Amino acid sequence: MQTAQLIQQSLAPFDKKIDGLIHLYLLSLSDAKGQVSLSVGRMATELGIHRKSLSVVLDHLKSNGFIQKEETQGELLSVITLTKKRPVRPAISIDVRRKAFIEGLDAHASQYPADMLQAFADYWTEPNRSNTRMRWELQPTWNLSMRLATWARKAMSFARSMCSQHRTTSAEYVAQAQQWAEAETLRIIREAEQERKNTRSLIHQ
Fold this sequence. Notes:
Elements: H1 3-11, H2 17-29, E1 35-38, H3 40-47, H4 51-63, E2 67-72, E3 77-82, H5 94-104, H6 114-124, H7 144-166, H8 170-203
Antiparallel strand pairs: 1-3, 2-3
Helix pairs in contact: 2-4, 3-4, 7-8
């Protein structure tokens, strides 16, 4: 999903768009404790809005339970703590998320073969039994570029190794490389499946 769409989804639950934007801004600045220590004046300058306008938004977020706000040093410093309350975002169907995932692969079309990207998408967008989450969403970490690079590297390494061992001709290489790449893809799928099972086991320990 494109950044603009994600932002729109994040802002949708708020009555006013400015409230959602300021909330996102505070989230981006918050430390491990969920706190932001800045003066209202400085925040207003960074955001390019009037200080009084920002104060109104902060008061609104506070009254709705999204933040706690304390003034120190004669209001020269504001300590804003984001509460655990989060806006309820509209549910995004798995079909929409699957489409967004596949569209995200288009940026890599010039780097990887279409059949490899298709196989990659087919595997990682497989839904769970309840059809609520895809395989890639169940991973503890996810970096698309790194996953694609690893997938392609292992497949090509295997194919070249096999060609070298059997001393195939150019014509044979084309046919066998495709077969070996497919076989390696299946092997990678099995390894990823085992990794997912191991991850789940660790989570439930």
